UniProtKB/TrEMBL annotation:
This is VWDE protein. It comes from Urocolius indicus. It comes from the Eukaryota. Residues 233-294 form the VWFD domain. One of its GO terms (cellular component) is cell surface. Keywords: Disulfide bond, Signal. The gene is Vwde_5. InterPro entries: Dev_Signal_Modulators, Ig_VWDE, VWF_type-D.
Length: 294
């Protein structure tokens, strides 16, 4: 006789006696006072296939499993499936109920980005879903992550500029009270002044010298970043000199001297041009003879 009891199992992380555990908590149905639970722990071995790692039978409305780095490691997605049955009538069971998958490890939010070469900064949040066990309750306990970017599918003979820039190369996730804080950084697309379609990159994170053995062989999932081209503005100064600005305004400058041709209002970029007399006595004509760019 199978009945639905709405046990609603939920997985949460916890540090127990200095070691990281996952705790499966579920509701106690008031209509079944004398009850026993069977809790099956499993992890996602490959997409679509679960692997059983522990089976508990308990009177409590919770069950623990240790993240020991052997049968349960960082990077695993973990489930608990709970079935209730009467102590004096074990054949009378509830329908098994499965928790949502709990990803144990470092998460990036969002998990992927599509950005444009528009100079805008995009926020990327890094957090740990599990605490780090600190020996001796060290107040400076933290996880330090080294961040790197890698362009995907780029021709090795011409590397060019990177596709994305990060606001930091290292971030700390400080841990206290059994939980770890999140770190926030910004990602910006690098303009390459080329119409090459979409460029793809990834951001990877690697824990630096962790004291906890659980973290030593762990590499978090990377973040895929797609960079979309935007049309590049152009301005010109040519012949004696005719000038066309970025917005298409046209005028002439026949004067001799050094002039500020272009200056950005948001970053340290400017172009100077030097003009000399190239018309002689016949006409008052100036020509470009030098350029300096910062």
């Amino acid at each position: 006789k199978l009945t639905s009891l709405a046990l609603q199992p939920v997985i949460t992380p916890e540090v127990v006696q200095g070691r990281v555990h996952l705790k499966c908590t579920y509701s106690h149905p008031p209509s079944w006072p004398l009850i026993r639970y069977m809790v099956l722990w499993s992890r996602l071995a490959i997409p679509g296939k679960k692997e059983q790692i522990q089976l508990d039978t308990t009177l409590q409305s919770f069950s623990y499993i240790e993240m020991n780095g052997v049968n349960l490691r960082l990077g695993d997605t973990v489930f608990c499936t709970v079935t209730a049955f009467m102590r004096d009538a074990p054949e009378e069971q509830s329908l098994p109920e499965e928790s949502k998958g709990f990803y144990a490890g470092i998460k990036f939010l969002p998990e992927s980005l599509e950005i444009a070469e528009d100079g805008k900064e995009h926020v990327l949040t890094i957090l740990s879903t599990v605490p780090i066990a600190c020996p001796g309750h060290d107040s400076s306990c933290k996880i330090t992550l080294q961040l790197t970017t890698e362009d995907l599918g780029k021709n090795s003979q011409f590397l060019g500029p990177p596709s994305v820039a990060l606001s930091a190369c290292q971030v700390d996730l400080p841990c206290s009270g059994g939980s770890c804080a999140a770190a926030v950084l910004t990602v910006m697309a690098v303009t390459d002044f080329a119409q090459g379609g979409k460029r793809r990159s990834r951001i990877t994170a690697q824990p630096i010298a962790p004291r906890d053995s659980l973290w030593r062989d762990y590499t978090p999932k990377d973040v895929k970043v797609t960079v979309r081209d935007l049309p590049t503005g152009n301005c010109y100064s040519f012949t004696d000199p005719h000038i066309i600005t970025f917005d298409g305004w046209r005028y002439d400058n026949y004067k001799i001297g050094t002039f500020l041709l272009c200056q950005s209002t948001s970053r340290p970029f400017e172009v100077h041009v030097r003009q000399w007399d190239c018309g002689g006595h016949r006409s008052a004509t100036a020509c470009n003879c030098g350029v300096a760019a910062r």
